[in-house]
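<discrete_fold_record>
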Amino acid sequence: MRDTVLIKEFFNRVGPWIYSFFFTLVGYRSSLKYFVRHNHQRFDLKRGIRILDAGIGTGFLTVNFLKEVPILLKIIGLDFSAGMFVGLKRRLRRMGLEGRVMLQMGDMRRLPFVDESFDMVASSAAMEYLPDVEEGICECGRILRPGGRILIISTRDTFMGKVIAALWRNKTLEPIYVKECMRRVGIEHIETLRFPWYFPHVNWWGMALLGKKAHGLNDL
């Protein structure tokens, strides 16, 4: 619990400016733009669906969903850091996207939503901050409807991943472990997606896993 409080305090300090500046500098923000552009057809997106960005931060992933997907989407963004919301709200105002994102303060380990209430759950650079990653994935699976998609982008356990983790106080994750956690909550057909070839450095430290929630036990 103490670690969670310290992480929240850390992001309350760095969220408004430093976080966005650093990840823009290393190309993560730009890489997400082309990642979404190249992969959005895999997400089964339709107008009117309910999408949650769990651990929205300053909105890198959400902004690219709204700008790169040729469908009018609205997204619910959840985070536990008021500081990150400061940076996020500033970006949404600048881009004229405030009306397409509903913000919810909350903890990814206890999502304030009813079971099977979302068509897609996405999480970028957030799972690796949870004390228990499986707990967060379980919650995402709980609120996802059968047939819905889940996208998890996180820091991989590589040399570059460890460098990122040392700077940003997160852990690194093994893709095999994350996939096992996803399968235990009924996620199937898990794909490993890569960032476009002109952002190779992101693949050296980041991983992106896309899966679909089974319709029933017989689908597993």
Q: What stands out?
A: The beta strands are 51-54, 75-79, 101-105, 118-124, 144-155, 187-193, 206-213.
